[in-house]
TrEMBL record:
This is Lipoprotein. The keyword Lipoprotein applies. It comes from Neisseria gonorrhoeae. Keywords: Lipoprotein.
Amino acid sequence: MLLLSAFVLAACNAQNRQSGVRHQDFARVAVDLFRSACVLTQGSFEPVSKFAAVGHFVPVGKEDLSRLPPAVAEPDVQALWTLERDGGIYYLSLTRDSCSVKAERADSAALLEHFSGLVRQPPKNANIIVN
């Protein structure tokens, strides 16, 4: 079974309203990327790799991992890409049994709302098991 996950490395500070709105957007984008990169491809290596290439993700080499925040890549990461879009930084990673999208900054409440929407209304061609 393929384990699919999406999470945020850091949530926003609600004191800055403009930042808060941007961080809500970052959460939406992270879940949209997760849907497209991981759910629709069922997390398989080749389709995820194609998605990353078409979406202008930049591959991260093993030698570059030490310069990234520790939570970006799982210890058994097989492939890792990064994407900068509209001020947000996102990481797409694959392990043997998981596909994940992480955002450097995002609003945690917005992330939960968007991810819950994905679980309630999964894409029609996806095999999603909710425990």
